[in-house]
Design a protein that fits this description.
homodimer; about 120 residues; mainly beta; Jelly Rolls; six-stranded antiparallel beta sheet; four-stranded antiparallel beta sheet; 2 helices; about 5% helix; globular; Bacilysin_H2HPP_isomerase (chains A, B); Cupin_2 (chains A, B); Cupin domain-containing protein (chains A, B); RmlC-like_jellyroll (chains A, B)
Chain lengths: ~120, ~120
């Protein structure tokens, strides 16, 4: 038997929104081995170059993000509606919201730094 | 350094569709620790009671699924657009498409039975 033998239903619109900065907010669904997030970025938001051991899948539902992978000098990759970016663990990446964006981020394992709010790279400007 | 130090971009519409049955088809994006799937179910599709060790997150983008968790006698749970169902590993579940549905399924680890097509529970009627 798993620790939690039951399924849990979530409704995004009914979940509290964490306002991380003026420009970026999010909702989190945290499982055992993975985390599903709604990340809301206003046009112009910069997510500074950072990395984490967590594997990341970014699925864009609204808007578009421009990514730089490996370094800030890399050729940018634009990920728009209906597109997905897979970022292996430990890979450096930076992002910019080209439009107001709803980004579905999936991580494995869950982002402990998002849960305990030690994600300073997002909070400092 | 990870095995694959680069990010990979996917466009759902450009990806091949695997037609699993007349009623169910899918597209898969497979990472290291997780898999992201688009599952397309026609109204009336039944996914028979089954379980797997993989943790599952089901996010409905179009349509709706009715789930039975634990057994076929359980009280059904309807998951519609903008809703998410978290199913821990090893939990039995059955589903029925109440409408034509686009279901985003996320698994950790990736579903090896989906990759090697040994997922007979989906294929046998």
């Amino acid at each position: 038997m798993p620790d939690n033998p039951t399924a849990t239903k979530y409704t995004w619109d009914a979940m509290p929104v964490e306002q991380v900065t003026d420009q970026l907010s999010r909702r989190l669904i945290t499982g055992d081995k993975m985390m599903l997030a709604h990340v809301y970025l206003k046009k112009g938001t910069i997510v500074p170059l950072h990395q984490h051991h967590n594997e990341q899948i970014t699925y864009i539902l609204e808007g578009a993000l421009r990514f730089w992978i490996g370094s800030e000098d890399a050729e940018p990759i634009v990920v728009g509606v209906g597109e997905v970016l897979h970022i292996p663990g430990n890979v450096w990446h930076k992002a910019e919201a080209i439009e107001d964006t709803l980004d579905v981020d999936i991580f494995s394992p869950p982002r402990q730094d998002w849960l305990d709010k030690s994600d300073d790279y997002l909070r400092l400007k």
